Amino acid sequence: MRPPGSPPGAAASEPSTTGLTAPTAAVEAVDSLDGAVAPAGSGAADPHRTEVLPVGPEHAERTVRVTRPAPLSSWSYAGSSEETVLLPRPPLEQDAPAVPAPRAPTEADSRDDGALVRASGGMAVATLVSRLTGFLRTLGLTAIVGLNLVGSAFNVANTLPNIIFELLLGGVLTSVVIPVLVQAAKEDGDDGQGFAQKLLSGAAVGLALATVLAVVAAPLLIRPYLDPGTDLELATDFAYLLLPQIFFYGMGALFGAILNSRANFGPAAWAPVLNNVVALVALGIYAVLPSPEVGISDTQLLVLGIGSTLGIVVQAAVMLPAMRRVGFRWKWRFGWDRRLSAFGGLAAWVVGYVLISQVGLAAILRVASGADDGGPAIYSYAWLLIQVPYGVLGVSLLTALMPRMSAAAANGRTDQVVADLSLGSRLSTVTLLPMSALLTVFGSQLGIALFSIGRSGPEGAASLGGAMAASAFGLVPMAVVMLQMRVFYAMNDARTPTLIMVVITAVKVPMAYLCPVLLPPEQVVLGLAAVNAFGFVVGLVVGNIWLRVRLGHLDTKRVLRTLVLTLLASLVAVLVAVLVVTLLERLLGGGMSLVLRSWVVLVVGSGVFLTVVAVAMRLLRVPELDPVVARLRRLVGRGRARTT
Fold first, then answer.
1. CB-based contacts of 547: which residues, under 8 Å, 6+ apart?
2. Cβ neighbourhood burial of 417 (10 Å; 0-12, 13-18, 19+)
3. Average pLDDT of the residues in 103-113
4. What is the per-residue DSSP string for 437-477?
């Protein structure tokens, strides 16, 4: 295998011990002799060279052009040309060699799931920092802006650029982009660079036009998400400042897709951290400005709106140097590519997916705003915080899985797609189900402990915590549904996810409008949070049925075994934690404040829960913990080696 850091085109230093031939430089004959074959990997740095080939009785000369190997290297098994698989290098571990994942059509899978854990683990570190800074941003918003009319107006307006971005080129659509980019890198001689340049150029023009139209139409766009009795003017003013984010959201998503398709996950994972830092600086400036007793001043509105938009600009711009480092150069290039036609068909279904999903979101926010001025803010923050564990663990796993599933689907390896689906479901269960149980039991204390500061107050914090507890059961179903969607996208099927979203929305919207009828006003937001989570349960069941029809056997027994073992460990941990907390509260008596009591219960209860659940899962021999534990042991071993 070519050592990391060696020049492109360097020959393999030694034969592979795994039966895999290392990726070599692609050699294209410009003026070849009949029957002559250029030696692959013949090691020169000069892109045009003359070689003497021992063909026939006389040596003949030919000129060859050496092209750089694609970041997604093509591997062949034992020198066979029957099948190739695109293999990304592990992210954030650039000194590690590429992990071989191919197999002959007749042998068992030899793909290294430990490499996937290492890849997602590296991204999880970046995502953890991103989520922590995002959490600080949310904490600052609730404390400085408040869970009130201003907070709701900002949240709804801040949702609009995300919605329109999703309609044009959202996170779901990038799941379609990555397989197409992987295919272009595999098929084209320029590593798919020309196709990516056309895609970026066309998208930049389209996003710019859409952004201008959205800003002009801001008063109309804000109306479906708020009850007519609320202050639409304030939300519209925020929308004017926040809607320019659409362009930068879209370009940043495409930059990240190009980097991910070239197995470079780090910059896209770290970019949101800078966004959060800029937003926190804007909040700090907002806090020291003179503020009216009710509402918000014009200066505060400008600082909050422009600061939020500037964070998205930085988030997109920071990925440009990384694109140059992986060898991508963005030049304006317009023209049509046959793959864009297929992409357009897939994109149409994804637009339908987003439109349908927004029907459900609009219904929930409209009902929430009618029940309480702070309803949209409480619901939005609660759902945002529920997604923190998923963002740290689930998103990083999906990002690492997506190129691998795309490559398997491109090669017609349905068994590998099913294996990745099973692995992703099991890892999601092991990592997220305990978090779901923890939030269900201690969600209320979490809300009171963290958000009873500034303008939010204990009452709003209690509602926020209650909404988190009411929706925590949807954490694992959400992660599995997102994984199922990406399985369909990896198979170039964007129609089925849209149809699944139709079913979810058809269940969710009537239940949302029943909440004010069946629940008192102070519990409407809690009911809406539970309705949204239940929608993912419905999506999981429907998606599983659809995938079984499409793929056949889904390795359901292994997934269910992991689910049962993890659930059992979580229930034991909950019982022990509740028992310890109950005894602690009796010892403390009634002399402590509500916030301090919530902090004590949260710290002690969560500490006991996490300890017990970890021990219980080890005793129950949950197999999905093995690669994680092995990874931790390696890291500890490296740390000890450095200290000695």
1. 421, 484, 487, 488, 554
2. buried
3. 41
4. HHHHHHHHHHHHHHH-STTSHHHHHHHHHHHHHHHGGGHHH
**How is residue 3 annotated by DSSP?**
P
Per residue in 205-242, pLDDT (tens digit) is 988 998 999 999 999 888 888 877 677 888 899 999 99
The residue type found at 456 is S
Written in H, E and C, the secondary structure of 530-596 is HHHHHHHHHHHHHHHHHHHHHHCCCCHHHHHHHHHHHHHHHHHHHHHHHHHHHHHHHHHCCCCCHHH
Q: Is the pLDDT of residue 454 over 90?
A: no
What whole-number distance in Å separates Cα of residue 368 and Cα of residue 357?
Answer: 17
**Structure confidence at residue 473 (pLDDT):** 93
Q: State how far the Cα of 377 lies from the Cα of 478, in Å rounded to an integer.
A: 21
Taking the C-alpha atoms of residue 257 and residue 179, their distance in angstroms, rounded to an integer, is 10
State the DSSP H helix or E strand holding residue 87, giving kind and residue range, or none if neither: strand 84-87
pLDDT tens, 332-380? 877 776 666 666 666 677 778 878 888 888 899 889 888 877 788 888 8
Which tens digits make up the pLDDT trace of 388-444? Answer: 788 766 666 666 676 677 677 767 788 888 888 888 888 889 889 999 999 999 988
Least confident range of 47-51, 164-168, 505-509, 632-636: 47-51
The single residue listed with the structure tokens 């109309």 is 220
In this model, does residue 142 exceed pLDDT 60? yes
| CB neighbour list of residue 558: distance below 8 Å, 6 or more residues apart | 422, 426
Contact partners, residue 255, CB within 8 Å, separation at least 6: 268, 316, 319, 320, 323
Q: What is the distance between the alpha carbons of residues 32 and 634, in angstroms, rounded to a whole number?
A: 50
Which residues, other chains included, contact 51 with Cβ-Cβ below 8 Å and sequence gap of 6+? 38, 39, 42, 61, 62, 64
- Give 186-195 contacts, CB < 8 A, sequence gap 24+: 186/70, 186/72, 186/74, 186/84, 186/86, 186/410, 189/26, 189/28, 189/67, 190/67, 191/68, 191/70, 191/71, 191/327, 192/70, 192/261, 193/327, 193/328, 193/329, 194/333, 195/337, 195/339
When comparing pLDDT for 388 and 557, which is higher? 557
- For residues 469-498, one letter each, b for 16 or more C-beta atoms within 10 angstroms of the residue's C-beta and e for the rest, the string is bbbbbbbbbbbbbbbbbbbbbbbbbbebbb
Q: CA 84, CA 247: separation in Å to the nearest integer? A: 37
Residue 60 β-bridge partners: 53
DSSP tally for the chain: helices H, then strands E: 21, 6
Residue 21 CA to residue 104 CA, distance in Å, equals 13
Amino acid at 416: Q
- How many Å apart are CA 323 and CA 111, to the nearest integer? 28
73 membership: H or E segment, kind and range: strand 73-77
pTM tops 0.70: no
Q: Degrees (nearest 5) of the Cα angle 448, 451, 452?
A: 65
Tell me what pLDDT residue 94 has: 26
> Helix, strand, coil shares of the chain as percentages rounded to 5?
70, 5, 25
DSSP string, 203-240: HHHHHHHHHHHHHHTHHHHHGGGS-TTS-HHHHHHHHH
